[in-house]
């Protein structure tokens, strides 16, 4: 191995793609030592978390082992959660890895020549009273799995009292962005499917799902036309949508809004905003913004240290043609990973870094089996609204593109076939 050490922290939608590309291009030819560090042993593509929460996806089947993937792609993997940075010594600090009461790995320091931080984001509850204690934040696999277990438990608990007609499950979702809307649709679908597998203690029509949104329409990032199409579809699914309702307090029993409404709910999911992990705030003198994102230049280099790059949700990257930064989305992380791979190759060869140009491909929202809606950005800033099977196909394409970057054409094809076979062979939902 060459001595140049590229350390990538965070193997998510962006970081894992970057490690794979750099491993294939530099690690394989011994031009650099590429090391990926992640706080978990396996990767799960974050935009699928709502499917895990609703039981539509079994994370154990879809997860990817970092160690196995690293071996195939000429990079190394280390388990660890970054907790600090020592720029003077070019080292990152990894917190001790603790399992139960046992310290599996002590605090460690890892040296780098080039550091890339791609550790994503967490949910931002904007300090809303009661949110942290009473809501599930759908920002990691463990939270999605916890939600799924809690959802199934509602059925199991209901089985012990009252006849089915009297049993209700109230779910409130705060935030009508992609996560909230997609989760609501998946849960609605699960509520109908579960009865087929003996979870009939609560009738589907007694599962009340309410989405609360502070702005005046669902999915404000979409065009008004697409946004309206989604609202109508949600209503068809009997999902209550309350727009213009700011949640001010959350208790064990439900949510209070600014206008004075109370929405009762036993299950509450907060999906209304993001922020980068707390420890990044001003980390060793690097510039950060009010939501802890590392401020980077268009080439994704941090503004105060040329050896440190950041991208994806944890970075504020300027957009070429707009006053707003690159949005925190999987498509941004994917595009940035592709460019940064080329750029870091250039850097090693003594060539200039490349500036990131964000291409908004539009947004597609999956409404579970009821279809998908969204808009695709066309030329001349015109956008085209798609619905139904075409939109569903394009929605799935974003995930397949991620798999394609990680595995190449033939393995992605095999994975598509595996998914189809699994769907035919097993139950449609995860039931445990
Ligand atoms: C339910 C849901 C649905 C979504 N749907 C869409 C969608 O349809 N389209 C879209 O474009 N975007 C969607 N998004 C947003 C998208 O998931 C994110 O924008 C994208 O995953 C960001 O990629 P990333 O690489 O920056 O971070 P992530 O994919 O979040 O990866 C971060 C990685 O860093 C690791 N990590 C975190 N902290 C540390 C640490 N301290 N040390 C080491 N490792 C660490 C994590 O384990 C993780 O592997 C959705 C998000 C959610 C939650």
Task: Describe the protein.
The chain is an alpha/beta fold. It folds into 2 domains: 5-121 and 276-348, FAD/NAD(P)-binding domain (3-Layer(bba) Sandwich); 135-272, FAD/NAD(P)-binding domain, CATH 3.50.50.60. It has 10 helices and 28 strands. It has helices at 15-27, 49-54, 59-62, 66-72, 131-134, 141-158, 178-194, 224-236, 330-348, 388-425, and strands spanning 5-9, 33-38, 42-43, 64-65, 76-79, 82-86, 91-94, 97-99, 102-105, 108-111, 114-117, 122-123, 136-137, 169-174, 207-213, 240-243, 247-250, 254-257, 262-264, 267-270, 274-275, 294-295, 301-302, 305-310, 315-316, 363-366, 372-377, 383-387. Strands 5-2-1-11-24-23 form a 6-stranded mixed beta sheet. A 5-stranded parallel beta sheet has the order 13-20-14-15-16. A 3-stranded antiparallel beta sheet has the order 6-7-10, with no helix packed on it. Strand 27 and strand 28 form a beta hairpin. Helix 1 packs parallel to helix 9. The chain is globular and about 70 Å long. The N and C termini lie far apart (45 Å). Bound molecules: flavin-adenine dinucleotide (FAD). Flavin-adenine dinucleotide (FAD) binds at residues 9-15, 37-40, 46-47, 49-50, 81-82, 118-120, 138-139, 178-179, 277, 312-314, 328-331, 333.
């Amino acid at each position: 191995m060459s001595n140049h050490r590229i350390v990538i922290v965070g193997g998510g939608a962006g970081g894992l793609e970057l490690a794979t590309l750099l491993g294939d291009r530099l690690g394989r030819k011994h031009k650099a030592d590429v090391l990926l560090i992640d706080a978990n042993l396996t990767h799960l593509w974050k935009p699928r978390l709502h499917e895990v929460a609703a039981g539509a996806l079994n994370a154990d089947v879809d997860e990817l082992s970092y160690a196995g993937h690293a071996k195939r792609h000429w990079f190394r993997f280390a388990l660890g959660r970054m907790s600090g940075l020592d720029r003077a010594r070019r080292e990152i600090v990894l917190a001790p890895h603790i399992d139960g009461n046992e310290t599996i790995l002590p605090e460690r320091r890892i040296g780098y020549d080039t550091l890339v931080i791609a550790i994503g984001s967490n949910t931002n509850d904007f300090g809303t009273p009661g949110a942290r204690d009473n809501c599930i934040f759908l920002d990691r696999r463990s939270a999605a799995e916890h939600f799924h277990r809690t959802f199934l438990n509602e059925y199991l608990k209901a089985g012990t009292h009252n006849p089915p007609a009297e049993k209700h499950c109230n779910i409130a979702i705060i935030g009508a962005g992609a996560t909230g809307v997609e989760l609501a649709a998946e849960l609605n679908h699960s509520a109908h499917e579960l009865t087929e597998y003996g979870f009939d203690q609560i009738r589907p029509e007694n599962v009340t799902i309410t989405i609360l949104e502070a702005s005046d329409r669902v999915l404000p990032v979409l065009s008004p036309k697409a946004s309206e199409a989604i609202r109508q579809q949600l209503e068809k699914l009997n999902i209550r949508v309350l727009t213009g309702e700011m949640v001010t307090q959350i208790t064990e029993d439900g949510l209070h809004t600014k206008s004075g409404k109370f929405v009762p709910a036993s299950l509450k999911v907060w999906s209304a905003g993001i922020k980068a992990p707390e420890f990044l705030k001003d980390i060793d003198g690097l510039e950060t913004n009010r939501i802890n994102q590392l401020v980077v230049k268009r080439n994704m280099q941090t503004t105060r240290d040329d050896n440190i790059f950041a991208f994806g949700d944890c970075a504020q990257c300027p957009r070429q043609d707009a006053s707003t930064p690159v949005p925190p989305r999987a498509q941004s992380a994917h595009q940035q990973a592709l460019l940064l791979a080329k750029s870091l190759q250039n850097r090693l060869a003594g060539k200039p870094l490349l500036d990131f140009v964000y291409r908004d491909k539009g947004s597609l929202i999956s409404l579970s089996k009821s279809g998908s809606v969204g808009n695709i950005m066309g030329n001349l800033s015109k956008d085209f609204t798609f619905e139904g099977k075409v939109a569903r196909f394009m929605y799935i394409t974003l995930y397949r593109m991620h798999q394609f970057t990680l595995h190449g054409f033939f393995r992605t094809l095999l994975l598509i076939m595996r998914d189809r076979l699994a769907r035919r062979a097993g139950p449609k939902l995860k039931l445990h």
